[in-house]
Amino acid sequence: MADHLEASVTLPSDPASVAAARTYVVGTLAEWGLPSDTDAAETVRLIVSELATNAVQHTFGQSPTFTVDLALDRDEHLRIGVTDSHPRLPRRLPAAVQQDNGRGMVIIRWLTAESGGRLRVRRTREGGKTVLIELPWAVPARPVTTAGQQEP
Questions:
Q1: CA nearest 48: which of 107, 126, 88, 89?
Q2: pLDDT, tens only, 8-64
Q3: Which residues sit opposite 71 in a β-bridge?
Q4: Is pTM, for the whole model, over 0.85?
Q5: Quick one: angle between helices 16-31 and 39-57, nearest 10?
């Protein structure tokens, strides 16, 4: 594989774009060798889903688009960045038991830490922000059979 791969998509800040972001990322990672039915792909799918949802819901219409960037360095590190043009940085919101929202950043931080990664937030030159996730690249060496044994 190449020393460095990159992919990017810019989508409208619309709820339908969350599914489009997930589909784009999972498809790109499959092209790069990470099967979509792995735990690592599911973790990335959930992280992207939460980040894209935040970019749509918490920018209050002040960011007409958001961008999802992927970068794979030397088959070692996967970087995921979601950028929007709203200046407010993400923060943990109170989540009452009855609420369906307010837990996105908690979920993202937990999944990132569980995967041995790290999370950073950077301001953009244009006044927005990028939430960056860096994860170890974990592509299975060989497919696992239904019996749970690796194929030769």
A1: 107
A2: 999 999 999 999 999 999 999 999 999 999 999 999 999 999 999 999 987 777 889
A3: 6, 79
A4: no
A5: 150
